[in-house]
Amino acid sequence: MARFSSIAVTIFGWKHHKWLCKLTLLDRILCLGGYWIMSEPPIIWQTHLMSWGRTGEELNSEQSAIEAVAKSLCWKKLKQKGDFGIWPKPTNHIHCKKNRKIFKKLSLCKA
């Protein structure tokens, strides 16, 4: 059973496309192995599309962009069901970062 030692539930809006800064900040403050749980637009757009007055394409695009940023931070979506999406923060980013092109020219410090 998973231990929830650190959970971040977002309460800020994503419509203004500040998700890159918000997820980067969340990555900094969330403990290693912690969980980010999202239960707001755009993650639940398929269920609540009509009540928001926005197009499905717009919301799907936002969700795809958020997931791309999460992937760049080495997060993998654990589950999306109903009104929730759950991403665990990795306990170690080194393996992921070594495989990304941006880090091929940079050497990571040894502890």
From TrEMBL:
Top-level taxon of origin: Eukaryota
The entry's keywords: Glycoprotein, Methyltransferase, Signal-anchor, Transferase, Transmembrane
An annotated GO cellular component: membrane
InterPro entries cross-referenced by the UniProt entry: Put_SAM_MeTrfase (IPR004159)
GO biological process, one term: methylation
Ranges in a coiled coil: none
EC number per UniProt: 2.1.1.-
UniProt-annotated location(s): Membrane
Keyword Transmembrane: yes
Keyword field contains Transferase: yes
UniProt topology in membrane: Single-pass type II membrane protein
GO MF assignments: methyltransferase activity
Family: Belongs to the methyltransferase superfamily.
Name used for this protein in its record: Methyltransferase
Organism: Nepenthes gracilis
